[in-house]
Amino acid sequence: MTEQNDTKAKAGAIIVPVTLFEQNCTIIWDEPSKKAVVIDPGGDVPKILDAIKQTGVSVEKIWLTHGHIDHVGGAADLRDALKVPIEGPHEADKFLLDNVVESGARFGMTGVRNFAPDRWLDEGDSVSIGGLQFDIYHCPGHSPGSVVFFNKDLRFAHVGDVLFAGSVGRTDLPGGSHATLINSIKTKLLPLGDDVGFICGHGAGSSIGQERMTNPFITGEM
């Protein structure tokens, strides 16, 4: 469990790696109110609930960046446990959420459930938790319905599996497209600004500026 506190002391974040995929389930909260959101509860729900308790925050929402099993496997159970709404991803990933059980079976993940979010998200939407507001960017390519959450004030984004430190999301899964993914990164993420830091779905986070300069998938496509 990795804790990160923003220098402006307006927000905090804890990363809880879950399942064999070591997916970065992320808890983000508004510091003054301690109201929080869980992003991409891919599984290991008891572990996530324990992290929430240790952090002392009040989770009011679940946000999903996309519909792949390693990011949504625990979403239905966590929604039931916390009695909070699920927001996201984009509706283009409905086919994935309709087949969570089938996807889980391929990876030996039992106890998962198909579900629908309480709200689909689209380009131009915004979501909030406490005093924090995040703008939604629809960034297809890794999956058709991938979305990115961006907070302009904090200069921070959660990008799911769209972009990684030194890499980009895989595009060999159903609905994936490398050309579409690179276009999403170039037209949606890079313009956010080099000073923007991000948490991604797996591994260490980075910044837009660092990836613009050193990420071979971006520099080779510029």
Spell out the key features of this protein.
222 residues, single chain, 27% strand
Written description of the protein model:
- This protein has helices at 45-55, 69-72, 75-82, 94-97, 100-106, 178-189, 208-214, 216-219, and strands at residues 2-5, 11-18, 23-30, 35-39, 58-63, 86-87, 126-129, 132-138, 147-151, 156-158, 163-164, 167-168, 197-199, 206-207.
- The chain is globular.
- With 222 residues, the chain is α+β, with helices and mostly antiparallel strands.
- Strands 1-2-3-4-5-6 form a 6-stranded mixed beta sheet, with helices on one face.
- The chain has 8 helices and 14 strands.
- Helix content is 26%, strand content 27%.
- Strand 2 (11-18) and strand 3 form a beta hairpin.
How do the helices and strands line up, and which of them pair or pack?
Blueprint lengths: L1 E4 L5 E8 L4 E8 L4 E5 L5 H11 L2 E6 L5 H4 L2 H8 L3 E2 L6 H4 L2 H7 L19 E4 L2 E7 L8 E5 L4 E3 L4 E2 L2 E2 L9 H12 L7 E3 L6 E2 H7 L1 H4 L3
Parallel strand pairs: 4-5, 5-6, 10-13
Antiparallel strand pairs: 1-2, 2-3, 3-4, 7-8, 8-9, 9-10, 11-12, 13-14
Task: Report the order of strands and helices.
Answer: EEEEHEHHEHHEEEEEEHEEHH
Biggest pleated sheet: 6 strands, mixed
Classify the helix fraction into a percent range.
25-40%
Global shape:
globular
Proportion of residues in β-strands: 25-35%
The total of beta strands comes to: 14
Which consecutive residue ranges, at least 5 long each, have pLDDT under 50?
A: 5-9
Helical run tally:
8
Briefly note the structural class of the backbone: alpha+beta
Span of the ends, CA to CA: 36 Å
The average pLDDT is 95
The radius of gyration over CA amounts to 16 Å
Give, in spatial order, the strands making up the sheet with the most strands: 1-2-3-4-5-6
